[in-house]
Amino acid sequence: MNKNFNLTVVYDNNPFDPALQTDWGFSCFIRGAEKNILFDTGTKGSILLSNMNGLDIKPQDVEIVVLSHFHKDHTGGLSALLKENPHITVYLPDFFPSTFKNSITKQGASYVNVKSYQKILANVYSTGIISGWINEQSLVLDSHEGLVLITGCAHPRIVNIIETVKDKAKKEIYLVFGGFHLSGFEDQEIKEIIRFFKKSGVKKVGPSHCSGKEARELFSKFYGEDYVPIGVGTKIPI
Ligand SMILES: [Fe+2]
Ligand SMILES: [Fe+2]
């Protein structure tokens, strides 16, 4: 079974590829599993589709969507995508409102309620719903380099998410990237979190979206070459 993945950030508020639009939100396209996955969908459908187009990703290429949590900057692009391609299964936390779930089926697509840690495809897992001030699921890829953990906003705290993954998957974590939700945190707190990452054996990091400038700078300083600069258009082959 293939354990190589190609990750492309298609929506982020951090710039990377100047040909693409930068906007608040997050979305990442994943090739390599038996089906192509879009993790989160950004805020605006028009920007999602235009960035995908700029990156040569067709709406028809998406087979599975995984939504991390019920915030517009992660769910906002879904209906525009389903309009172009309804042949998609959406994996969402089971607490999503029924109005949202009904809108998916009304567009001709289907959804799967996620509760606890579960396999989505071979070598692709959801962390299940992790509780916090806002409940959220994250995505785990079991790659040939180790686990790749992708987070939407990390509202239940990035440390708790990593603890869950270590506990459930019991494998080395190669890369953690996405929103770490560390804006407004004191430098001391961020350094403490970075120490936790290192102690947990996380080899590479790519804080983006809601991670905040300070956290990005500190992670970059402490991770050096193993810091992955993430912005809209970043491609990560694994
Ligand atoms: Fe959020
Ligand atoms: Fe967010």
Overview of the structural elements:
The chain is an alpha/beta fold and about 240 residues long. Helix content is about 30%, strand content about 30%. The protein is built from seven helices and 13 strands. Helix 6 packs across helix 7. The chain is globular. The two termini are about 15 Å apart. It binds fe (ii) ion (FE2) (2 copies). The site of one fe (ii) ion has 8 residues, from helix 2. One fe (ii) ion binds next to helix 2.
CATH structural fold name: Metallo-beta-lactamase, Chain A
If you compute it from the alpha carbons, what radius of gyration comes out, rounded to the nearest whole angstrom?
16 Å
- The count of β-strands is 13
Overall CATH architecture: 4-Layer Sandwich
Return the structural class: alpha/beta
Bound ligand species: fe (ii) ion
Q: How many structural domains are formed by the residues?
A: 1
Mean pLDDT: 97
% residues in beta strands:
25-35%
Write the H/E string, N to C.
EEEHEHHEHEEEEEHEHEHE
Please list the strands of the largest sheet in the order they lie side by side.
Answer: 6-5-4-3-2-1-13
Helical content class: 25-40%
The top level CATH class name = Alpha Beta
User: Which ranges are low-confidence, i.e. pLDDT below 50, for 5 or more consecutive residues?
Assistant: none
